[in-house]
């Protein structure tokens, strides 16, 4: 149970049963929950990349960024010299339809380095051996999907639970770093830290350990499995009281 201490405190404070179940996409892996058409060609592109070399970037299905941040992100990725798979959701950049505000010549410059798509099969991408880091908005679905594959993260939260999730990832689990400098040099430095230096390697070790814990939790006898059984028993107890 990755949030054990916090859940125990909540249960003690509110005096209500708590049933930590999940991650659901590992308990029911055949279901596709994406509401946007996925570009599956990215898997073939990833197949050509070295293990743990690709930084995957996606800010989810709701967040939007300003043009300045988008352009700084583009140059930070290019200057990092790191292979990148960048999901740019249509209309996710304020005032644009897609990537028309990229600097002139950018696509030609990064053709061998990067791949830009409108949407990707994220769970398959994160499970791919070429992916070594995930630049995310830190939404809970994306966070869990990254944890389940042992992929360390760069967090750029925008709103809602994303800020709290980022604090967990960076300060509690210590498998991520928060992107606070949105200029190209700060972005380049963050990518270098996550993908190349000692700090990033330590994050990857901790992330892989959490992956193992999550895999055990959904197996028979694991914490999530037991919680599901306890929930079923709890619901059935109401019928027995009649």
From TrEMBL:
Pfam families linked to this entry: UDPGT
Residues in the signal sequence: none
Molecular function in Gene Ontology: UDP-glucosyltransferase activity
Keywords: Transferase
Protein's UniProt keywords contain Transferase: yes
Record InterPro entries: UDP_glucos_trans (IPR002213)
The keyword Acetylation belongs to this UniProt entry's keyword annotation: no
Family of this protein: Belongs to the UDP-glycosyltransferase family.
Official protein name in the record: UDP-glucose iridoid glucosyltransferase-like
Organism annotation: Olea europaea subsp. europaea
